[in-house]
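**Backbone geometry record:**
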Amino acid sequence: MILVFWLAWLFATFGLQAPPNLTVVCIILVCAVSVAGAVFLIVDMAHPYIGVIHVSDEPLKSALASIGER
């Protein structure tokens, strides 16, 4: 929550201090999309077996089977 508030404050202050032209708007938009993507990936990887990005559990099952055989 603090990270989102800090980033929103950062983008708002840059947007208020910069002259309103196309370059500034595009750069702020690209930065906002990249930060949103990073936050999305962090939240999605908090639960690796559900969500948009899935992590395979086959290596874990194979390792546990190998340990169980000993």
Q: What stands out?
A: The chain has three helices and no strands. The chain has a mean pLDDT of 84. Residues 22-44 form the longest helix (23 residues). The radius of gyration is 20 Å.
